[in-house]
UniProtKB/TrEMBL annotation:
GO biological process, any: regulation of DNA-templated transcription
Organism whose genome encodes this protein: Sphaerisporangium melleum
Record Pfam families: GerE, Response_reg
Name of the protein described by the UniProt record: DNA-binding response regulator
InterPro entries (UniProt xref): CheY-like_superfamily, NreC/VraR/RcsB-like_REC, Sig_transdc_resp-reg_C-effctor, Sig_transdc_resp-reg_receiver, Tscrpt_reg_LuxR_C, WalR-like
Length: 227
């Protein structure tokens, strides 16, 4: 299967670089480019990409609003692409807003080519990108903006989780893969997949990225608490 990618960035040189990297792969094809969020929305509707590689800061409609409209405002039954947000560390404060808007993860603009390609494949397959080291640094930087367990009561839906599911949620928030969680809990990876599915279903979450944000926002895990 060929993965169709839409490149969204207001810097033509960056778009050209990304295109060269992606089109060197036999299973990836760039179906279009956009220099702002408004054009990205139009291109998404017209070209039906599988993955949108989305910059955040752009003239007019920014990447956050474009992501929200592409992912969350799609008509029932309509094709909904997955969105990977591009960022630099000086724009950290926008990341959680992008994830809330419906992005499936985020990458740094200086990501190595092989990691960029793999991230697109992972997202296209329906998973989400949660890089543990980057997630920690981002969330630690704006820790003051996140409520602690004492500032905000745990949502009622979290109480639907079993103790083991809560444990799995905390490990997801640490950026651990299913295999790593299985090793940590000394259970099979199949069992972990079942727990992860139950967590997402009970909490009404789309993917692991949303689970990370919820875990931090509700105080189940706090910035700086991960070694």
């Amino acid at each position: 299967m060929t993965i169709r990618v839409l490149l969204v960035d207001d810097q033509p040189l960056l778009r050209t670089g990304f295109r060269l990297i992606l089109e060197a792969e036999p299973d990836l094809t760039v179906v279009g480019e956009a220099g702002n969020g408004s054009t990205a929305m139009d291109q998404s509707r017209a070209l039906l990409p599988d993955v949108v590689l989305m910059d955040i800061r752009m003239p007019g409609v920014d990447g956050i609003d474009a992501t929200r409209r592409i992912v969350r405002d799609a008509a029932p039954g309509a094709h909904v692409p997955r969105v990977l947000v591009l960022t630099t560390f000086d724009l950290d404060e926008y990341i959680v807003e992008a994830l809330r808007a419906g992005a499936s993860g985020f990458l740094l603009k200086d990501v190595p080519p092989d990691e960029l390609v793999q991230a697109i494949r992972v997202v296209a397959a329906g998973d989400a990108i949660v890089a543990p080291s980057v997630t920690r640094r981002l969330l630690d930087k704006f820790a003051a903006r996140l409520p602690s367990a004492h500032q905000q009561a745990t949502p009622a839906r979290v109480h639907r989780l079993t103790e083991r599911e809560l444990e799995v949620l905390r490990l997801i928030a640490r950026g651990m893969s299913n295999a790593e969680i299985a090793a940590e809990l000394v259970v099979s990876e199949t069992t972990v997949k079942t727990h992860v599915g139950n967590v997402l279903t009970k909490l009404g979450l789309r993917d692991r990225v949303q689970a990370v944000v919820l875990a931090y926002e509700t105080g189940l895990i706090t910035p700086g608490a991960i070694p």
